[in-house]
Amino acid sequence: MDEAVRIAFEAGLPYTALRDFRPDERLWGRIAPEWAVRERVVPLLVVGDRLQLAATRPDPDLSALHGDWAGVDVVIAPAGEIDAALAQVAAAPTREDRAPVTDPGDPHRLGDLLVAHGATTDDAVAQALGEQERTGGLIGDVLLSRGAVGEDRLRSVLAEQLGLPVIDLGGYEADPAAVALVPELLQRRLRCVPIAVDDAAVFLAVADPLDDDALTALRTALGGLQPRCFLAGRHDVDELLQDLHQETWTAAALGTLRDRFPGETCATPVRPALVLAGILVLAAAIAGLAVAPATAGLVLVALTAAACAAPALLALPLAVAAAGPRRAPVRAAGGDELPLTTLLMPLGRGAGASVRAAGTLAALDHPQARLEVLLLCPAHDVAGLRAARELTRRAPHRLVAVPSPAAASRAAMLDYGLLLARGEQIAVLDPGDVPAPGLLRTADAALRAAGRRTAVAQAALAPPPGGGAVAAWLAAEAAAWHDLLSPGLARLGLPVPLATVGLVARRAALEEIGGWDPASAAAGTDLGLRLHKSGLRATTIDAAVGVSGVTGARGWLSVHAVWWRGTLQAFKVQLRHPWRTVRRLGPGGTLAAVVLGLATIAAPLVWLPVLVLTVLGALQGLQVVDGLLPVTLARIAGGEVVVVCLVTMVLGVAGGLRRRSGAAARAALLAPVALTAGAIAAWVGIAGVVAGLGRGAAAEAG
């Protein structure tokens, strides 16, 4: 994790980047430059009557700071960017040294008009033009994202420039006849609402002026009618669209995958033949133990060795494939236009999620004009909605009230957000996450470099430091997976089970495969397998996302039980049509899927019996007990335990050292304890599966 991100994460302060920093002359006129250089601080802006100050450490000396501010809020920024900003201030030309970039006396361009109307300043337009040159986007969006112009003023000036009327949608009800003329998908994509119709035209409220391609698509859909556009507030258009189509959107979020690919969703019942096969295998094992216990026990222990030791040994080549010299993080070229990225952020219950979301968004180093933030909040969470609305008032983010049926699972909320996303790329973060500097830029560059068939870039997840033995083991577990095993799978072109956070995906690819599975409790694992079956690939990036960790043993068990149950669901889907799955995954993908299934599903279930056999074998070897087990059986079980523990320790230590985390490396030595706890979690997951089947049977009987 980047040093500045780590400092911010540990201090509980927001993180920011100064990549697009432009000094505010008026603010710097109230700051002593020598003090700023000495303390390595940069004043950013004034919010209300509080000064926001970027610093390299959480406790700069503020005693020399003079001003009439009510308080100072410190945010952490990288030391190199602080120094570059200070140097930029020292070398910045004065307003008199720079030629104006606008001509308010003869206004033709949007910047000219805005300055002529007093909506912004020439300095603000100059800074916005510089950002637009580096990152792309429309100048109005850049000015809006920088807070240099208000949305109402921008809309009125745009309307004047384009000759469009403005409409206030407050309390407005759209004409159903007009709504029926424009396909819902077109309304959603163009962010427009048909409000009225006559014999010659359909009148539409649009959130943004439509380009020629959009107008052509509308004319095609309307037949002989002409579209007539009115500019309206973005929030008002979104609210009206939500009122008109929330039932349709809810059905799509819950049913797109099921309707398009019924064999690929966990919601489809397991085939009776698969259930029968499982019953027959269990019956054969019980019969064998009853008839020839020694032989059957030997066979079963040998099979458990295949389930546990084989995946452990095969994990070593994956780690070797990923453990070469660290690649320099891929960065987008300075002149490349950044794509619009939609960030989906599911909010939890209550107002606290919005507070954490504000910290995550403040830490996100990305030009705001190239970022669309969708805050996904359950519609029944009144307190959460109220807090999220406050957050959207301070920044151009979009609050989406997700109807209760679609808010039943995290995956369903993400699918609901995917329907409304306008960005070429989709990113997912949780409230409270701390993204690495340049996360979205790095992911974009990695996707460009890998080619169109690479659909997802997955960042490494980094639990927070501290929190005791459980948190330390979680850090070791995350380091082994995200720094060794997952990159190894990606480099070999094999299926990569994904996380449901810290990923950046091509929107077109997600739509191609039906998005996330709302019925899956491990939607990331399921998504990774379905991507590979569709001929798409995932890659990993050397950028970390700090995530909230589980600090208690009970919470750790609960999380792993749910994850195990979801992984079982995902692999049951693959067994629904086994030969079709083999053809779509290919030989290498099939082998990887089998090994992953053994390691994540079968191994935890058989670990406890094997551990018991190992202990009994050790007692027998010490002559504490006699004649309990055949010697061969005890040796196989003991060898299996030794191999699995050693490999798990090696992977955890290597991952911890790769992250330069001594605590994680030391915690990896607790592998036997952690493996046993994981096995208990798997059996808790089994109990959840059985309880779910019981509830389903009771519901059918009722």
Would you give an account of this structure?
This is Glycosyltransferase. Residues 426-617 form the Glycosyltransferase 2-like domain. The chain crosses the membrane at residues 273-292, 298-321, 590-616, 636-657, 669-693. It is a single chain. With 702 residues, the protein is of the alpha/beta class. Among the domains are: 3-93, Type II secretion system, protein E, N-terminal domain (GMP Synthetase, Chain A, domain 3, 2-Layer Sandwich); 99-145, no CATH class; 176-257, 2-Layer Sandwich (GMP Synthetase, Chain A, domain 3). The chain contains 26 helices and 14 strands. The strands form three sheets. Strands 9-8-7-10-13-12-14-11 form an eight-stranded mixed sheet, sandwiched between helices. Strands 1-2-3 form a three-stranded mixed sheet. Helix 12 crosses helix 17 (410-420), helix 22 crosses helix 26 (671-701) and helix 23 packs across helix 26 (671-701). The radius of gyration is 29 Å and the shape is globular. The mean pLDDT is 84.
Number of helices: 26
Structural class based on helices, strands and sheet pairing: alpha/beta
CATH homologous superfamily identity of the domain at 3-93: Type II secretion system, protein E, N-terminal domain
What is the strand tally?
A: 14
Strand count, sense and closure of the main sheet? 8 strands, mixed
* Cα-to-Cα separation, first versus last residue: 53 Å
Uncertain ranges: none
The strands making up the biggest β-sheet line up spatially as: 9-8-7-10-13-12-14-11
Rough shape? globular
Oligomeric status of the shown chains?
Answer: single chain
